[in-house]
Design a protein that fits this description.
This protein is of the alpha+beta class. It contains 9 helices and 5 strands.
Length: 224
């Protein structure tokens, strides 16, 4: 049965119009972007197959265009459409943060670091500066290194936070290898940063490590 033959309440477009995009599943949202399916599958069926074989959704969308184009049901046009949709979402998030939006969702900070740092050939250490209400007042790449690491100086982080009049900071860095698992050196740097910032009454809220998959929150691990 084709999608236009489904009951109207179950069709993705009708559901979105009646109840908003949040009412749709990942497969239904992806189906709307794809527009149509492949032989033997409607758009929703094609989307479900893609998510089963290459998901979850974030992992699928973050694949490079060349890899997307090799997936069944995604050619060059659909690969461009998917990457464009992801970039639009990323720009909306960046715009909110750059306007000084409050970080009420910890995951949004992780996504922000991922969008800036993922895929960089060298390790980059960056800082989000926040005021007392956790509004973003600045973002800065402070240290750049080799493929194996960047040397982090807690005193410089503290100095820049004072210049920005920050009440709190969130830091993050990438692993060019793609493995986002924090190293012992990452944990040691986090401890030193927290101690240095505490001396000047600035809170370290989190330290994200960015790799190929979702960024890893060290606060979520209990290491901040």
């Amino acid at each position: 049965m084709r999608i236009h033959e489904w009951p109207s309440a179950e069709r993705p477009r009708e559901k979105l119009l009646a109840h908003g995009a949040g009412s749709l599943s990942d497969a239904e949202l992806l189906a709307l972007i794809l527009g149509s399916g492949v032989r033997g599958f409607d758009a929703v069926g094609t989307a479900r197959q893609l998510l089963t074989e290459h998901g979850p959704l974030r992992d699928l969308l973050e694949q490079p265009p060349a890899k997307l184009m090799r997936m069944r049901g995604i050619g060059s046009a659909r690969a461009c459409t998917l990457k464009s949709a992801l970039e639009l979402a990323a720009r909306c998030l960046r715009a909110d943060l750059e306007r000084g939006a409050a970080l009420t969702d910890p995951d949004s900070a992780g996504r922000y670091f991922a969008q800036h740092l993922r895929g960089r050939p060298q390790e980059v250490f960056a800082v989000l500066y926040l005021n007392s209400r956790h509004n973003v007042i600045g973002f800065e790449e402070l240290f750049h290194g080799t493929i194996n690491g960047a040397e982090v100086h807690p005193r410089e982080v503290a100095r820049r936070a004072l210049q920005r009049n920050a009440a709190a900071v969130i830091v993050g860095h990438n692993h060019p290898s793609g493995n986002a698992e924090p190293s012992q050196d990452d944990r040691n740097v986090t401890i030193r940063l927290k101690q240095a910032l505490a001396l000047i009454d600035i809170r370290l809220l989190d330290h994200f490590v960015v790799g190929d998959g979702p960024p890893v929150s060290m606060a979520a691990r209990g290491w901040v």
